[in-house]
Design brief:
The chain is 62% helix and 7% strand. It contains four helices and two strands, in the order βααβαα.
Length: 61
């Protein structure tokens, strides 16, 4: 398991990160609740919601 830092998520939302996609698809990515809070405060709604909801089910509308 790999803890994914906020900066990795932010960069992924700007430009798809294939390494992160592979981690998500293999259920190898971890995220801390504080990172989710940081993302909620500082990134545009899409693709954040799409990525977190479709891959890890953490974002609820």
């Amino acid at each position: 398991m790999i803890l994914v830092d906020t900066s990795v998520w932010v960069n992924h939302f700007k430009s798809r990160n294939e390494d992160l996609v592979r981690l998500l698809l293999s259920d190898s990515a971890l995220i801390h609740p504080l990172i989710i809070a940081e993302l909620a405060c500082d990134t545009p709604p899409e693709p954040r919601t799409q990525t977190l909801n479709s891959r890890v089910g953490w974002v609820r509308r």
